[in-house]
Design goal:
The complex is a heterodimer of chains A (about 160) and B (about 725). Chain A has about 160 residues and is α+β, with helices and mostly antiparallel strands. Helices cover about 35% and strands about 15% of the residues of chain A. Chain A is globular and about 45 Å long. With about 725 residues, chain B is α+β, with helices and mostly antiparallel strands. Chain B folds into 3 domains: about 5-215, Aldehyde Oxidoreductase, domain 4, CATH 3.30.365.10; about 225-295 and about 355-435, 2-Layer Sandwich (Aldehyde Oxidoreductase, domain 4); about 450-725, Aldehyde oxidase/xanthine dehydrogenase, molybdopterin binding domain (Aldehyde Oxidoreductase, domain 4), CATH 3.30.365.10. In chain B, a hairpin with a 4-residue loop joins strand 5 (about 165) and strand 6 (about 170-175). The chains are: A alpha+beta (about 160), B alpha+beta (about 725). At the A-B interface, helix 1, helix 2, helix 3, helix 4 and helix 5 of A face helix 8 and helix 19 of B. Chain B: It comes from Sphingomonas spermidinifaciens.
Chain lengths: ~160, ~725
């Protein structure tokens, strides 16, 4: 049975089995390879995408569950929070190896959309599910504060 | 890219001689010859290629007609920012416009680029001379072209931000305008290099990464992201025990999985190839396999630890090697006031965020590989060996690695060989070999576990007078001495003023594979030396910083002394700390750099909470201060993760930690605030990627000692199921 997905605002029909994790449908079927495999058990956050605006781990989410949901990936995520996050990440040279950063950006954007001016405790809660083995954590935290300040200042 | 004219092609040969001379005489071959004999040998064998894009400005610099400078990065970019560091060395001497400099990664090519080895935190040190010479030679060619065109003396010409000028006559031209003329000039044999006080780029925060945009927009830049026409995905079922062999397998069910193309035995297990990653995974899960464990490692960790303790006590047939010997009476028993210490360290996984992967295709004699390779010229040789071809027929496309920490820098090229073996079965279809996280954590090549017994005879002055050191650690390389296992001990300044030193190393061999892990032997020798010195200071009733200062003075360890003094100053050492907190410090030299760290720690139950770390770095000239700070921050996070949680253990030969649930790693909420200070220096640059790792564990252990009075004699600090730190999103 083909499954109709809404990915980055477009409807995409796939014929993967319903239990296939969304991660592999995005990467292998739809060619959206910016969402990464890091653990396969929702422990590292490299595969974070937005489903109806919520950050979720796509590596353990069966694709059949998200039929009719709005899925957004790192390739399609857009808006003022995204621009603020990317500008802050660039200004602070946050990434090292960079492999986890798609997921970090997706989690940070979701946080700022929920809490425009997050506290350190808010950042701990929202970002501790995203591992970074290069330990770019302090720059991530600082960049989120930067992005929040940029978002709260009228352009 | 400009086509090199004939005259310049001739010049190119001479130019290679300049670079070649710098390489052969410099630290590169010497330094790597010690740590990576395979790498150098492999690189030498892999000659036969030609420069794919010959440029009048040498192998490392291309200049496009629009004036953009492309730097060819022969090192592996695995997060450390080397692409920008190398580009800065060239751009500085070339006086290029930094905003119009881009970087491409070199394919494996010994002829064009020399041995491509990213190891030992040596990339800046080993490129320091050759890249600056390359940049300066190219600059001289532009100066000469302008002097000829304008008929003015060369000495009156300036170059700045990619613009060549003759201020006296108010003439100027950007690189683009002079490019054709400059490319016809002969590069000078030994171009003059700038004095450090003339640097405009090196040592400034203008040296920024050039790879942030693709990394925050999800650009498909990693091996995992490679997609080629007709490509298959492969996964391999490995023996659950090290040294186990395949007895028999049944692929009936695996082949029924939709998308699975084939399943077959290879040297390392059973490979399943499929149209998609998920099909390969499901196909592999459906294999039925019997393993032959007759030659396998069957011990549990507790047994190996007991065996190591026996070996260190001399109850063994192994003969040790001497790694540090001093004094006539080195063998005589220690007498009087003797302090004894034992330390046990576990196996550690590298766990880069990108699990191991490699893309390979085999077409007759030709092999094409895409990989985040540290040692592409070694991988070339290893791939040629299993594909029955010659290294010159193997092309390694080097792409950014999603981390490595040493795992992708094995002379054995284990997963590269595995990918090539599989690709030989797939009738020219490219294969992307993917290891799962479980494969990576259970598949070996760990930081070796080790056991150490150290006894110190304390003199009347409270200082160590005689040392007896016994270490047990598997060898990292199949041949040669096992010097990496004890690096950081024999040359410790704490040994310098002793009258006798007796250091012996036992190197047992058994099937658990071990390898280089970020900071290698220093990852635990710093813990031992820095933690025991705090204990000796306490015995002598002295402040740990003051006690170190005395020893550094006696050893004439000027760099250690400066780092320690700056650390005490920046960390307000000796001032009161908040109730419930304690401070510990550690100073250690690794990869040519001296790093000091102070950690501010409290205890939550048995869990150390590290609030703040102050780090002082002496790494010679700082090419990119912001990237050095990033590496120190990252090194502290990496080292703290291992110190808190890192342990790969065996139960009857089976690895018990399979993923981030059973092997926790440091998360954002556990990361201390880090302040990094770089000491000014005029010495050539030394390592940065690894030296930030070793001091953090002893700094924390010393803080815990101050807090509780209890020493730490093994890592990690947190053991067993209670160690979990699962994040709130888990």
């Amino acid at each position: 049975m083909p499954i109709d997905l809404s990915v980055n605002g477009r409807t995409r029909r796939v014929d993967d089995d319903a239990e296939t994790p969304l991660l592999w449908v995005l990467r292998d079927t739809l060619g959206l390879r910016g969402t990464r495999y890091g653990c396969g058990i929702a422990q590292c956050g490299a595969c974070t995408v937005h489903v109806d605006g919520q950050p979720v781990r796509s590596c353990t989410l069966p694709v059949g569950v998200v039929e009719s949901a709005a899925i957004t990936t790192i390739e399609g995520v857009a808006g003022p929070e995204v621009e603020a996050v990317r500008a802050a990440w660039t200004a602070r040279d946050v990434p090292q190896c960079g492999f986890c950063q798609s997921g970090q950006v997706m989690s940070a954007v979701a946080l700022l959309r929920t809490i425009p001016i997050p506290s350190d405790a808010d950042i701990d809660l929202a970002m501790s599910g995203n591992l970074c083995r290069c330990a770019t954590y302090n720059r991530i935290r600082a960049a989120i504060h930067d992005a929040a300040r940029a978002g709260s200042t009228p352009a | 890219m400009i086509e090199a004219p004939r005259t310049a092609r001739l010049a190119l040969t001479r130019r290679r001689m300049i670079l070649g001379g710098a390489l052969a005489g410099g630290a590169l071959l010497v330094g790597y010859g010690v740590t990576h004999p395979m790498a150098v040998g492999g690189a030498l064998l892999s000659g036969g290629g030609t420069d794919p894009e010959p440029s009048a400005f040498g192998s490392f610099i291309r200049i496009a007609p629009d004036g953009w400078v492309t730097v060819v990065n022969r090192q592996q970019e695995l997060g450390q920012g080397i692409h920008a560091g190398l580009a800065a060395l060239i751009a500085e001497e070339l006086d290029a416009n930094w905003d119009r400099v881009r970087v491409v990664d070199a394919h494996s090519n010994f002829r064009a680029y020399g041995p491509q080895i990213t190891a030992g935190s040596r990339s800046i040190a080993s490129n320091w001379e050759p890249m600056r010479i390359a940049g300066a030679a190219a600059r001289a060619m532009f100066v000469e072209a302008a002097a000829l065109r304008w008929q003015v003396p060369r000495a009156q010409i300036t170059v700045r931000d990619g613009v060549v000028a003759h201020p006296a006559s108010r003439r100027s031209a950007p690189f683009a305008e002079l490019l054709a003329d400059a490319a016809r000039r002969t590069p000078p044999q030994s171009p003059a290099l700038k004095q450090a006080n003339d640097y405009r780029l090196i040592g400034t925060d203008r040296v920024r990464r050039k790879d942030v945009a693709p990394k925050i927009t999800g650009a498909p830049i990693y091996t995992q992201d490679v997609a080629k026409p007709g490509m298959l995905v492969a996964m391999v079922a490995h023996s659950p025990r090290f040294g186990g062999r395949l007895a028999r397998f049944d692929s009936t069910d695996a082949l029924k999985v939709k998308g699975v193309v084939d399943a077959f035995a290879i040297d390392t297990g059973v490979a399943v190839v499929a149209e998609t990653s998920w099909a390969a995974r499901r196909g592999r899960d459906a294999l039925r396999i019997e393993w032959d464990d007759r030659a396998a490692e069957m011990r549990s960790t507790a047994q190996i630890v007991r065996d190591y303790h026996d070996i260190a006590a001399g109850r063994t047939d192994l003969s040790p090697s001497d790694f540090a010997t001093k004094g006539q009476d080195a063998d005589a028993p220690l007498t009087g006031d003797v302090a004894e210490f034992t330390f046990d360290f576990p196996y550690l996984v590298h766990a880069p965020m990108e699990p191991l992967d490699c893309v390979a295709s085999v077409d007759g004699w030709n092999v094409a590989i895409t990989s985040g390779a540290h040692l592409p010229t070694v991988d070339q040789v290893q791939a040629a060996r299993v594909a029955l071809t010659i290294p010159g027929k193997v092309d390694v496309e080097v792409v950014p690695a999603g981390g490595s920490f040493g795992r992708r820098g094995l002379a054995a090229s284990d997963y590269v060989i595995e990918a090539v073996r599989i690709a030989r079965h797939t009738a020219r279809r490219p294969v992307k070999l993917m290891w799962t996280r479980e494969d990576e954590m259970t598949g070996g090549y760990y930081r070796p576990m080790s056991h150490h017994r150290i006894a110190v005879q304390v003199g009347a002055d409270g200082l160590p007078a005689r040392w007896r050191l016994r270490s047990v650690c598997q060898p990292l390389l199949p041949f040669g001495s096992n010097e990496q296992a004890v690096e950081g001990m024999g040359n410790s300044p704490y040994l310098a003023s002793a009258t006798s030193v007796d250091g012996k190393l036992y190197s047992p061999r058994f099937p658990v594979p071990v390898s280089f892990w970020r900071s290698v032997g220093h990852s635990y020798t710093a813990m031992m030396m820095e933690h025991l010195i705090d204990q000796l200071a306490r015995r002598a009733g002295q402040d740990p910083a003051a006690y170190r200062r005395t020893l550094y003075r006696k050893a004439r360890a000027a760099r250690h002394l400066k780092v320690l003094d700056e650390l005490c100053r920046r960390a307000d050492w000796g001032c009161a700390v908040d109730v419930g907190f304690a401070r510990g410090l550690a100073v250690h030299e690794a990869m040519g750099s001296v790093v000091g760290q102070m950690a501010e720690v409290r205890l939550d139950g048995n869990r150390p909470i590290v609030r703040r770390v102050v780090a002082i770095v002496d790494c010679g000239i700082a090419v990119s201060p912001d990237q050095i700070a990033a590496q120190i921050e990252g090194g502290i996070g990496f080292g703290l993760s291992a110190a808190l949680y890192g342990a790969t253990t065996l139960d009857k030969g089976i690895v018990q930690q399979t993923n981030f649930d059973t092997q926790p790693m440091l998360r954002l909420n556990e990361m201390p605030a880090v302040e990094t200070y770089i000491l000014p220096s005029t010495a050539p640059p030394t390592g940065v990627g690894e030296p930030g790792v070793p001091p953090i564990a002893p700094a924390v252990a010393n803080a815990l000692l101050a807090l509780t009075g209890r020493p730490t004699n093994s890592l990690p600090f947190l053991k067993g199921p209670g160690a979990s730190n699962l994040g709130p999103m888990a």
